[in-house]
Write a structure and sequence with these properties.
Pfam families: MotA_ExbB (PF01618), MotA_N (PF20560). Residues 4-93 form the Motility protein A N-terminal domain. It comes from Marinobacter persicus. There is one protein chain. The protein has 283 residues and is an all-alpha fold. Helices cover 80% and strands 0% of the residues. The chain has helices spanning 2-20, 25-28, 31-48, 51-66, 72-92, 98-102, 114-117, 120-135, 140-187, 195-249, 254-263, 273-282. Helix 8 (120-135) packs parallel to helix 10.
Length: 283
């Protein structure tokens, strides 16, 4: 929603100011300029990035339009899931959770949290380290180091889409100049025509520069920043799991372990202590 609101403000401010200054909107309608700039941008984006990054950019933009799943409700479900697993392990022994972590799709605990089940990478992260805990005798600091290494690797993966889009944003002003130069080349054919014809052709060429700068700094660049923010919220879910798992390995009770996880969440999405406690009890 914010992406749409921001885009509307950008369009209204730029075009509205142009019209109020006496500009003619019809002059800005240059579909061939859009084709040159947009087509070159898309082509260079495909050349520069592997297919999985291209797909992730598309998925990321859809999430920006529909809303990120990593909200307060999601984090509360994640912490409630961890609490149930830790509580079962503490009461019935570590071996009791083996079936849950080996087959989360059929687990009575995991299936109560469909939002978490949709996050395949995070689900694998949780089950992998619960499996390590149940099969090994790893010290808390060793487990924490291993988890931090994987989170760092995941961070690079999550930041790839924003970096890819940001590079296109940086390239768009240059592509706008390319379109403008081609427009000037066409204008050279009209040198024998009257000044009105030449003026219209030069104006059309300059629209290319305008569109490249406007698209780069008004839309694509901010979208790259929004994708980066979205990735950070997902990464916080991994930090939450890490803090809670390390706490439970260190001997903390389930309620205290998820408190460690809660404190790792961003303040604008973090549930309150009593709010989380009530949510856990309701589950």
């Amino acid at each position: 929603m914010l992406l749409i609101i921001g885009a509307v403000i950008v369009v209204a401010s730029v075009l509205g100011g142009y019209v109020l200054h006496g500009g003619n909107l019809a002059v800005l309608w240059q579909p061939t300029e859009v084709l040159i700039i947009g087509g070159a941008a898309v082509g260079s984006f495909i050349i520069a990035n592997p297919m999985h990054t291209v797909k992730e950019v598309g998925q990321g933009v859809v999430r920006l339009l529909t809303g990120s799943p990593y909200n307060k409700s999601y984090y509360m479900d994640l912490l409630s899931l961890l609490y149930e697993i830790f509580d079962k392990s503490r009461k019935q022994g570590v071996m009791a959770i083996e079936e849950d972590i080996d087959n989360p799709e059929s687990s009575q605990i995991f299936t109560r949290y469909p939002a978490v089940m949709k996050s395949k990478h995070l689900l694998d992260f949780i089950t992998d380290y619960l499996r390590i805990i149940s099969t090994g005798n790893m010290a808390a600091h060793e487990l924490e180091g291993m988890m931090e290494n994987e989170i760092e690797s995941r961070q690079h993966e999550l930041e790839e889409p924003s970096h890819a889009v940001n590079k296109i944003a940086d390239a768009l002003p240059g592509l706008g100049i390319v379109a403008a130069v081609l427009g000037i080349v066409i204008t050279m054919n009209y040198m024998s025509e009257g000044p009105e014809k030449i003026g219209l052709s030069v104006a059309a060429a300059l629209v290319g520069t305008f569109l490249g700068i406007w698209m780069g700094y008004g839309f694509v660049g901010p979208t790259a920043i929004a994708l980066e923010h979205s990735a950070k919220y997902e990464l916080k879910a991994y930090d939450c799991v890490k803090s809670a798992v390390v706490a439970t390995v260190s001997g903390q009770a389930p309620q205290m372990a998820i408190e460690f996880g809660r404190k790792a969440l961003p303040t604008d999405k973090r549930p309150g202590f009593q709010e989380l406690n009530d949510h856990v009890r309701s589950k």
